[in-house]
Amino acid sequence: MFTDRVEFTFDAGHRLYGYKGKCETPHGHTFKAEVMLSSEKIDQMGFVVDFLELGHKVGKWVEENWDHAFLANGQDKEMLRALNSLTDRRVFIFPDENPTAEVIARYLYNHVRSVYGPLVSRVRIWETPTEYAEYSEASRA
Ligand SMILES: [Zn+2]
Q: Is 97 a catalytic site residue?
């Protein structure tokens, strides 16, 4: 089995709606995303995927959607009201969930799957240098 792994970083804000603790206040992280794609076979170029293409297709999506954005829970009306009052804003909404590392990892996994199909094996989102959440689907691992 071959596995290709790339990482992307993005700076984003969030808060955990309904959480009691310091993460209930708006704050930011330099998130690191790790994307892994696995295959038993490589193509005629010798690749599982072309790193350059992966950076273009996935890295660009991350940059355009999440970098310097505020990741918000769509149920967090107070936060959305505050964000909507700003002239300049970039907001990415997770309709019914808090933007935790777990939720972000699953979202990115599904995005990469929409591009690369079953080649995607797992996605990790590092929220701090020592903490990450990982998403994979057992049947595809
Ligand atoms: Zn946080």
A: no
Distance CA 109, CA 124 (A): 9
For the chain, the straight-line distance linking the first and the last C-alpha, in angstroms and rounded, comes to 11
> Is 24 annotated in the active site?
no
- Residue 23 annotated among the catalytic residues of the structure: yes
Tens of pLDDT, residues 93-141 = 999 999 999 999 999 999 999 999 999 999 999 999 999 999 999 764 4
Whole-prediction pTM: 0.94
Give the distance (Å) from ligand 1 centre to CA of residue 91.
Answer: 16
- Of the candidates 23, 34, 102, 134, the residue annotated as catalytic is 23
Q: Which of 53, 56, 64, 68 is catalytic?
A: 68
What would be the CATH architecture of the domain defined by 2-140? 2-Layer Sandwich (3.30)
CB-CB contact of 104 with 31 (8 Å): yes
Q: What are the domain boundaries of the chain?
A: 2-140
